[in-house]
Amino acid sequence: TSGSDTVTNVIDGVVLNLTGQSPIVKTETLTVGIDQTAVQNSLQQFVSSFNSLGDMLDSLTSKTPGTKGGTAGTASPLAADPTAMTMFLDLRNTVLQAVGSGNVNSLGTLGVSTGAVGAAVGTTTRLHLDATKLDAALNSDATAASNLLNSSTGPLGTLLTRLQGYEDPSNSQAYVQSNTVSITDQIAALKTREATQQEMITNYTAMIEAQFTAMETALAMLQSQSAQISAQLGLTTTSSSNPTAGLGNVTTTGG
Q: Considering 34, 64, 202, 223, which has the largest number of Cβ atoms within 10 A of its Cβ?
């Protein structure tokens, strides 16, 4: 008995859509099977997202060597970070690890792989999904396939644990969190050092300017005193900037 034409609480995972009433009382047969298209779509979405992570890590860790006598090399922000450089390989190995025994015991047996054997170099760094192999595994042992895709019993649970080791807001020791704190501290230390150096530069500049001003004042006073002394002695100086230079040109005016 149901209050609507959509029945959701009779069979786990099954929604019954009642489309019409039969003119006579008869027994209807309902066959419940695996929605292979949904499984394939979900697994393909996972593969695509996983490969996007690889693309991002490759971009963040890439290096471009320089040329002799030409341009300088370039390096991305995490090019020298060993954890970032090996992270994708570590996660990929986790995804493809075997769990338990039997013929369907890894995502590889569900059609997830790094490409065909003998593929060109550089084309096997990402995951691929073989839909035909996935369908065969679902038809062969659906229970084993379900266990592999269950985060509690399959490699995806281990993958989640590994990912949380790299990034977990609740864990200050996770890779992203600990490095973020470390980099933030370094930035703060550099800003403090910059401020200290700037203060030293400002103080030194002020000291040099004060010395220059004092020298200018002293020079002006010396020039003034030299002019006064020369006038009193009846002497003539040849250079206003050198108070002693005029002593060689003394003219006697009296007996």
A: 223
